[in-house]
Amino acid sequence: MLYLSITLQIALFALLQDVPTNNVSDGPYIFHQEDGTLKSISVVEGKVNYSMITTSDSEAIVNTSIPSAPAITIAPVHYFIPKDTVPMPTALLAVSDLEGNLDHLLTFLQTHKVIDDQFDWSWGDNHLLFNGDSVDRGVQVTELLWFIRKLQRQSILSGGQVHFVLGNHDVMILANDIRYTHDKYKIVSEKTGIPYHELFSETSVLGKWLRNQNSAVQIGPYLFVHAGYGPELHKLQFSLTEINDKIRASIGPPAWPEKEDLGTSLAWNSKGPLWYRGYFEKHAEKYGPKPSPEELQAILDTHKAKAIIVGHTVTGNVGYLDGNKQLIGIDVHWDTLGEGEGLLITERTLRRLTMDGSSKELLDIPTGK
After folding, report:
1. CA atoms of 79 and 83, how far apart (whole Å)
2. CA dist., res. 157 & res. 182, Å (int)
3. Domains (ranges, CATH) in the chain?
4. Could you report the per-residue pLDDT of 172-221, keeping only the tens digit for each?
5. Angstrom distance (rounded) from CA 45 to CA 215
6. Radius of gyration of the chain (CA)
7. Are residues 127 and 160 in contact, defined by beta-carbon separation less than 8 angstroms?
8. Which contacts of 326-331 are long-range, i.e. CB under 8 A and separated by 24 or more positions?
9. Are 290 and 277 in contact (CB under 8 A)?
10. Max CA pair span of the chain
């Protein structure tokens, strides 16, 4: 058997996938050093650039070539764990499963006046929520993460908030499961000599920020988890804070540690909130069980919620799962121009926002197909 070097394998695979290794650009990836400085690593047209940044009063601003995040502010005040339960704002917009598709998101957010022409927050004291799987598959993962982090800071200054809910793919890349990562990032890893998951290590700015985010968030009476909240999880009677803390503790690396005990492996167990698919008839046997109406009501009663909103399983449109107003699916095709959608929740209405600027009624989504 002929064995190829890792470098040659990556170059050959990139050629077959039309990913030119010498034209790849990515970054920056910024790391805290023991002496208090910052190390920034970028790849620009296949060339790796390194720079050291001295912080002033523990704060630094790093300029980038990312139009939607041209300046990255780094300071201890930004390393916080967001609240997982907050009152209902005037308006809440939720999107899910962006998977590195930044350009379509920017168009959508500008169309609905959430951001301005400079890609800055312009939505006042309203809230925006990303319901998991912002990474993998797409080619703008790094840019998307820096953009969301920037918006999170800007929204707080305006009295609003940006919630970033962890999904299974977000946790996978942190734990070195890169099966679904675009080949661009495998080239970046080879160029820098740094395994992809270590670009998001606990010493990196993005890695620390990601690990601080929640996996279950309740805004007013609406409960958000990436995949679902099933009866097995409900039996454990964890609070949302306990769920979030336990997932942070079990992220890894390594990926896929002992995962049989739901209570200690919430990030990896198939019945955990990052993987559960029991609301969907076509997946309930493997990723269920499907909750009975009584079990679903018990989950909602425990959290004083009236609906659970999920991504993870593609619905194609924002809508009620099998017409059940207690379950809403929002995983749509952000990789296809024109098909991005979001769920807009106000005090009196739930609406489906589309890429053309329309506000429409939620559809009924069959779960058996």
Report:
1. 13
2. 34
3. 6-65 (no CATH), 78-365 (3.60.21.10)
4. 999 999 999 999 999 999 999 999 999 999 999 999 999 999 999 999 99
5. 35
6. 20
7. yes
8. 326/296, 326/297, 326/300, 327/279, 327/296, 328/362, 329/279, 329/365, 330/94, 330/95, 330/96, 330/131, 331/96, 331/97
9. no
10. 66
